[in-house]
Design goal:
heterodimer, A: 111 residues, mainly beta, Jelly Rolls, four-stranded antiparallel β-sheet, 58% strand, globular, B: 301 residues, 2 domains, nine-stranded antiparallel β-sheet, eight-stranded antiparallel β-sheet, 2 helices, 43% strand
Chain lengths: 111, 301
């Protein structure tokens, strides 16, 4: 049987402001993940650095180590490649006052 | 008894014997043809996110659909006891809501049928809220349930879109209700976008649920948010008459004589549709999780 491989849409057309994060995604079966963030509208203001976070329980989070600049223009995409992430994954970013982005976050997971 | 009836009885006895010898199928009672048997240790098995309709702008999607996210493969991992595991392997399908009272999420499998005949949906399920509090939390999940989305063939004279809905209303506004409900009345269709060609309706809106007669049932919830027990469910529906035939949850069989579905005129592009959806809804600002392991859909054809 071919190894499992799935594209999960974890955030779709959501306006991120302040402290923003994707919903927790459980993917302990996957050995690797590529996470994309696409700006679906023209971002407003200076875009923050996003980070991939991991968790022991889906409730308490810590940085995985991967960081990437969020897209600075509409339809721009940013990506992070991660492995050895245990079971839980999410993307988090802290937007300064007056800044925002409407994002599509997709996780591409492979066993 | 003639030869042909004897042969068919022998064939049925052999079929049952073979099913019961198979540890993966022995816990199901499928009709003669298995349409799918989804074990989530094999992957997502075609269960995907229910996405809403839109036109030109993704923002035209109705809010009920916009909140949906992709289902996951879960080991039911908990902070205090580790992975609970599924019914028959390490994995179950997990449908998680957002942490906002009334939030819902839906996973769907999209098929078509090749014969209008009786079909049977069977699955094992359990549900819990996210274990963010050291409390029983038994009234934090509002509901879990399932629905079919069906339409007859393009040459059938009686085709309409038929959507049987069933939910277990676990709690409502903090009251631990624990009863089965059905839905006959549909939300209105809303044109999406300027062309008027794309319509949408959020049929899982909170309004319009009705009680199944004698539909109260206390399920095994267990004593803390991180202990689960798996529950069996079976729903039989006749694609010929487009009526429910039978509904069972664990040891209880419910009267379906007054059951009816959401019924709407046939749509121009949904012929022979056989969609099956599973959903969860939270009653608090806490994520609700519906877990399923596994699913068997069968037909008499």
């Amino acid at each position: 049987m071919l190894p499992e491989n799935i594209t999960a849409i974890v955030t779709r057309n959501e306006r991120w402001t302040g402290q923003a994060a994707s919903e927790p995604h459980e993917a302990g079966w996957a050995r690797e993940a590529v996470i994309f963030v696409r700006a679906m509208k023209e971002p407003i203001g200076k875009q923050p650095t996003a980070r991939v976070e991991i968790s022991p329980d889906g409730m308490h989070w810590i940085g995985e180590g991967s960081e990437f600049a969020l897209p600075a223009e509409k339809d721009g995409i940013a990506a992070a490649r991660v492995s050895h992430f245990g079971n839980w994954l999410r993307v988090r970013a802290n937007f300064a006052d007056g800044t925002e982005s409407t994002v599509l976050v997709t996780m591409h997971l492979k066993a | 008894m003639n030869d042909s009836s004897t042969k068919s009885e022998i064939a049925e006895a052999m079929r049952i014997a073979m099913l019961r010898m198979d540890p993966k199928l022995s816990r199901f009672d499928p009709l003669p043809r298995i349409i799918c048997h989804d074990e989530f240790s094999r992957g997502h098995c075609g269960w995907s996110q229910l996405v809403g309709n839109y036109e030109n702008d993704i923002g035209t999607m109705l809010p009920g659909y916009a909140q949906h996210t992709s289902p996951m493969l879960s080991t039911l991992a908990h902070w205090d006891a580790g992975s609970h595991g599924g019914h028959d392997s390490s994995y179950a399908l997990k449908i998680a809501t957002r942490p906002k009272k009334g939030a819902q999420n839906v996973a769907i499998k999209r098929l078509t049928f090749r014969k209008r005949c009786p079909i049977r949906l069977e699955f094992y399920f359990t549900f819990k809220p996210e274990a963010t509090e050291l409390k029983l939390s038994e009234s934090d999940v509002r509901s879990v349930g399932f629905l079919f989305d069906l339409q007859g063939g393009d040459r059938d004279g009686d085709s309409e879109r038929v959507m049987p809905h069933v939910r277990f209303l676990n709690a409502l506004d903090g009251e631990h209700v624990q009863k089965w409900q059905l839905k006959r009345h549909n939300a209105e269709f809303t044109p999406i976008g300027p062309s008027q060609k794309t319509l949408s309706h959020y049929h899982l809106a909170p309004e319009g649920w009705e009680d199944v007669p004698d539909g109260g049932q206390r399920l095994c919830y267990n004593e803390i948010p991180t202990k689960v027990n798996w529950t069996y469910l079976r729903f039989d529906f006749d694609l010929v008459s487009m009526e429910a035939l039978s509904f069972q949850c664990n040891d209880r069989v419910f009267d379906m004589s007054s059951f009816d579905s959401i019924r709407i005129p046939a749509m121009k592009n949904l012929w022979c549709m056989l969609n099956i959806a599973l959903f969860a809804e939270t009653d608090t600002d806490k994520r609700a999780f519906l877990y399923v392991d596994s699913v068997c859909i069968s037909g008499d054809f």
